[in-house]
Write a structure and sequence with these properties.
The protein is of the alpha+beta class. The protein is 21% helix and 25% strand. The longest helix has 10 residues. It has a single domain, classed as Pnp Oxidase, Chain A. This is Pyridoxamine 5'-phosphate oxidase Alr4036 family FMN-binding domain-containing protein. It comes from Sporothrix eucalyptigena. InterPro entries: Pyridox_Oxase_Alr4036_FMN-bd (IPR024624), Split_barrel_FMN-bd (IPR012349).
């Protein structure tokens, strides 16, 4: 059974017209179950090229073909353009006119996972175990890093990939065009930075991750502005060193795998594949699905 998504309302020039007009069928339950977790940790897997590419096409292809997996735990910071409310966040917020189905975590650009995302083209898999609900969520897709150049030409490719999955919040159709035009990529990134504790913000001023730690009493390998354990308070959200290293990682999902083990005698599993509209409805995933909802092909399979 195919369910076609209604066309979204026109979007002001501040953002390109979204490719989706309604929420993913898994979104509400995903958010609800993440909210029940003491901390919404997810295991994030990226590809680590065996050697840094030389810059040539042959060198890049060789690095990709010899990639090995890397996994680490990250805290999910909500969904892009849908930052959870936090009364302790001192950063200004964007007008509440957009939302998405794109999970977000934050990272330091100097960490290997940031380089891995850039060098590999961004393939990523993130897994949550929502113990309170007895459900595992596995999200596969492409990761994009947003930093100081998010609203500049260097960030155009990431913006284009992300913004086509942003949509009007239900009921925001009457929101003025001015509010939408004032929506800002840098403001959203600053809001994510402000949502962290002062100590966590300060971690982006730490010495370079992975570099040797010098023996006590010996000179270190830090750069000006770096220092261990120095918090960034609410009045310094524009700290140049911390903000130069801070990145928001946005995952654009292509597949979502939900395994519900809450009933031991009747485990359930659903696969969601993003097919979009138009030609996507003729894809194999769409044709073999139990139903297509808002651009997502849903199929129940054995756990």
């Amino acid at each position: 059974m195919l369910i076609r998504t209604p066309q979204p309302a026109p979007v002001p020039a501040a953002l390109a017209a979204p490719a989706v007009g309604a929420a993913a069928p898994w979104r509400e339950q995903f958010i609800q179950q993440l909210g029940q977790m003491p901390m919404p940790l997810c295991a994030v897997s990226t590809l680590h090229p065996a050697a840094k590419p030389t810059g040539s096409l042959a060198g890049l292809a060789s690095a990709k073909s010899h990639a090995t997996p890397r996994v680490r735990n990250c805290v999910c910071r909500g969904l892009w353009a849908s930052l959870p409310n936090n009364a302790r966040n001192p950063a200004p917020r964007n007008p509440a006119v957009y939302e998405s189905d794109l999970p977000v975590f934050t990272t330091d650009v100097r960490m290997e996972k940031a380089w891995e995302i850039s060098a590999s083209g961004g393939p990523i898999e993130a897994v949550w175990w929502a113990s309170e609900a007895g459900t595992q969520w596995r999200v596969r897709g492409t990761a994009w890093l947003l930093g100081p150049d998010a609203d500049k030409p260097a960030g155009e490719k990431a913006r284009a990939a992300i913004q086509k999955h942003m949509r009007w919040i239900p009921g925001a159709g009457s929101t003025s065009a001015l509010s939408a035009s004032e929506w800002s990529w840098p403001r959203e990134i600053t809001a994510h930075f402000g949502n962290l504790s002062p100590g966590m913000r300060g971690s982006f001023r730490n010495p370079p991750p992975g570099q040797p730690r010098p023996a006590r009493g010996k000179a270190g390998n830090t750069q000006p502005g770096e220092g261990l354990g120095e918090p960034v308070d609410d009045d310094h959200l524009d700290d140049p060193t911390a903000r130069a290293n801070f990145r928001v990682c946005v995952i654009v999902p292509e597949e979502v795998d939900q395994v519900d083990l809450s009933k031991g005698d009747d485990p359930r599993r659903w696969l969601y594949t993003y097919v979009g509209e138009g030609e996507g409805l003729e894809s194999t995933a769409a044709q073999e699905a139990d139903e297509v909802i808002n651009g997502w092909a849903k199929k129940e399979v054995w756990p």
